[in-house]
Amino acid sequence: MKKSAKKLMAAAMAALMAASMTACGGSKTETTAAAESKADAAETTAAGETEAAKDGEKKVLKVAMECAYAPYNWTQPDDSNGAVPIADSNEYAYGYDVMMAKKICEELGYDLQIVRLDWDSLIPAIQSGQVDCVIAGQSITEERLQAVDFSEPYYYATIVTLVKQDGKYANATSVADLAGATCTSQQSTIWYQNCLPQIPDANILAATASAPDMLMSLNADKCDLVVTDQPTGKGALVAYPNFKMLEFGGGDNDFQVSDEDINIGISMKKGNTELKEAIDSVLTKMTKDDFSAMMDEAISVQPLAN
User: Fold this and answer.
1) Three-state secondary structure of 33-49
2) Which of these, 71, 99, 70, lies nearest to 84 by C-alpha position?
3) Which runs of consecutive H residues, i.e. helices, occur in the chain?
4) Cis peptide bond N-terminal to 241, omega within 30
5) Which end of the chain has fewer CB within 10 Å, C or N?
6) Phi/psi at 65 (nearest 5 deg)?
7) CATH superfamily entry for domain 60-156+263-301
8) In terms of pTM, does the model score above 0.90?
9) In the CATH hierarchy, which top-level class contains the domain 159-248?
10) Whole-angstrom distance, CA of residue 60 vs CA of residue 141
């Protein structure tokens, strides 16, 4: 009996220990699986959040312009026609340059910020890193290429002369016919630096600070004529119906300019190949007709005050 009881007790103890060990093993496995599941879930969530944050981030393209150079760019009080807020102001910018900046940002998935600067501050702003690029009707000249890089042209602008319809030079058919004229143009432009000196015996006044100042000088009879590019000339005819635009048609009778003088580009910091390639990828898909259609649209909605 005692022996049988001992055997029974030993068997019971063995079964209990086996059950206990099995229970402990099962608990450990479940705990590990749960922990791993939670870890995997956390890792997945973190990865998802990281990816979402990454996808949610958009580059802000800071674009400088005068906001005073219609039809390329101008300032207006509201967002009509798709105008964009000007940084650090309660005003808006629009015009051909803004339209082009918006198209580039839409194609590349960037957010757009317009920074308003005077003409002579544009290139220094690129060099200092204040802005990413300048879209402001700049000709791609060798002199500027020493300081900044340029995109492919985003417009091709011919040179024109603006006079009063009843002025002395209204019937001029060549640069030679402008001889002796009192004239001016905007500072730091090829119009002032390259074109005006080609007029025989010209009385060249001091350059104006901006395109609107240039046009007001002509309107106020401070000069006989101004030289500018075709889009600015077309825009001026809308604002000043008493003006006449003279186009001499190229050749020996016209102002002698190179392609670099009339090819308008987007400037950016030297060596910024990533931005240049990105912008060029948009511009090279557009044609001269696309540029002209966009410019005509800008001219059609420009305010008369710009």
Assistant:
1) HHHHHHHHHHHHHHHHH
2) 99
3) 2-56, 96-108, 122-128, 142-145, 190, 211-219, 230-239, 259-262, 273-283, 288-301
4) no
5) N
6) -160, 170
7) Periplasmic binding protein-like II (3.40.190.10)
8) no
9) alpha beta
10) 27
